[in-house]
Specification:
alpha+beta, about 110 residues, two-stranded antiparallel sheet
């Protein structure tokens, strides 16, 4: 089992959610976060300068079986892509165990 943590643009969340559902990843948690990126210069839009030091993003936390790892990462990557700085990051870590509280199931059956 793997835990996937993705930080994406808020504007791309609906597309990412739909892409995850399309590859049968139907359960995940998300919340709004603010982060600091690598870009030091602001953006200018219609003569107004916007700061990019504090960036609003959406943070997704997803636990999947090993067989779902590649399709989940591909779905997020394709749906979140704009080609511009700030598209986001994906972090993957190993999960030792999962337990479904209601039934006591463990491992892969507990995450499906």
């Amino acid at each position: 089992m793997k835990k996937i943590e993705a930080i994406i643009r808020k504007s791309k969340f609906s597309e990412v959610r739909d892409a995850l559902h399309a590859v049968e990843v139907n359960f995940f948690s998300y919340w709004d976060v603010t982060g600091v990126g690598n870009e030091k210069e602001g953006h200018i839009y219609r003569t107004i300068s916007y700061s990019t030091t504090d960036i609003q993003r959406r943070y997704l936390s997803i636990v999947v079986s090993d067989e779902f790892l590649d399709r989940t990462i591909e779905a997020i990557t394709k749906a979140a892509y704009t080609g511009n700085v700030g598209d986001g990051k994906i972090f993957i870590s190993e999960m030792l165990e999962t337990v479904r509280i209601r039934t006591g199931e463990k491992g892969n059956p507990a995450i499906n």
